[in-house]
Structures are given as structure tokens and as C-alpha cells.
Amino acid sequence: IVADGPDNSLDSQKTQARHYRTLQEMYKAKKPNKAAVAHLLDLEFQSRRNFIDSNALKEHDKPTKILQAYPCFKELDHAMDELRRIIEPNNCQYISEVKDRWESKVQFYGVMKKSHEASKDIKWR
User: H or E segment at 15?
Assistant: First the structure.
């Protein structure tokens, strides 16, 4: 087990900064590699959370500043994956599970609405 001393903390901060710089470089390309971006986002998650949660960002500027710092979150896939990192970081299938649950609820709602409309038509005839 490695102790979390000052040297390790400094190394971790340097590594996080290197990941962030790499991420920024990737977004200068026309088509960044989504898998590589997702991997870097996984690696520098804690640093990003510290940045977002810090008092350095004013509340009304936060969304703009976050999207400037992390343009990848303008893409739905990366935004949804960040949601997974926050809510259920150890479940890589979380987003697809949520989509499946949502889809079945939407279908159920649609069927219920149709049957309700049909029953209203029958009562009035």
C-alpha cells in the first residue's frame, strides 16, 4: 500500500494536469477519438470534480466555464458518461440501463394514454 503523502499528492496533481492538457490537445483535432477522451475523463475525474466544486467558479458562470474547460461535454455521449461517473462510477452499464428503464416507462405511458383516450371515446358514444 502506498502512503498518500505530499510527494504522492503532488505527483497525482501533475498527472491530472497532464491528462487535462492531453484532453485539450485532443479537442483541437476535428474528430477526437471518443474512447480516448472517455478514458482521459475517467482518469482525471477527481481533479475535474474539485475544479467544478471549488469556489473559483461563480455560480452563474459555472456552466459556461465548465463547457469552456471541457468542450467534450457539449457532446451527449460524454455528458451522459459523466453522469454515470457521478452517480454510479463502478457500473459501466449504468447509462444503457437507465435508457432501457426510461424506454419501457415511455412505452407504458404511451399505451396507457392511448387506452385512456380510447375509453373516453367509448363512454361518450
Answer: helix 6-26
